[in-house]
Design a protein that fits this description.
3 strands, 2 domains, 50s Ribosomal Protein L17, Chain: A, alpha+beta
């Protein structure tokens, strides 16, 4: 029987797991969308959600304490700034469940692990990329029409 077993080991030692937790959480906060394996996504989802819950509170008395807790876990001031200024307010009215895990059709080469897209809900980074790609396509079409009119 496996009594008192908390969390998955993910084939890593303790220090490597701690680094994985920190790096994964920072990546999700910075990029809002990460491609990883199903096992990692399921094991690390609680840590990402706890960081977002830490940032979404509007209590000004404990704000400095919450920022310091986030800095001690993430060890990346840019990620903490984005967490408290952008991501926290975005989920201020949501009671939990800030992330989504979507399975991809293909598998990892090498070990055949299931690949997933781990992303924040209401993903603004992806929307901005789509808008910039559409704007670039429109300007390219306009340039082609203008150059065709000159010829």
């Amino acid at each position: 029987m496996k009594h008192n077993v908390a969390g998955k080991r993910l084939g890593r030692n303790t220090a490597h797991r701690a680094a994985l937790r920190k790096n994964f959480t920072v990546s999700v906060i910075k990029h809002e969308r990460v491609i990883t394996t199903l096992a990692k996504a399921k094991a690390l989802r609680p840590f990402v959600e706890k960081m977002i819950t830490l940032a979404r509170s509007s209590d000004q008395k404990t704000k400095l304490h919450r920022i310091r807790r986030a800095v001690s876990f993430l060890q990346d001031k840019d990620a903490v700034r984005k967490l408290f200024e952008v991501i926290g307010p975005r989920f201020a009215n949501r009671a939990g469940g800030y992330t989504r895990i979507m399975r991809m059709a293909d598998y990892r080469i090498g070990d055949g692990g299931t690949k997933v897209v781990f992303e924040l809900l209401e993903n603004t980074v992806l929307e901005q990329k789509i808008k910039s790609a559409e704007a670039a396509a429109l300007t390219k079409d306009a340039e082609e029409v203008a150059s065709a009119g000159k010829a």
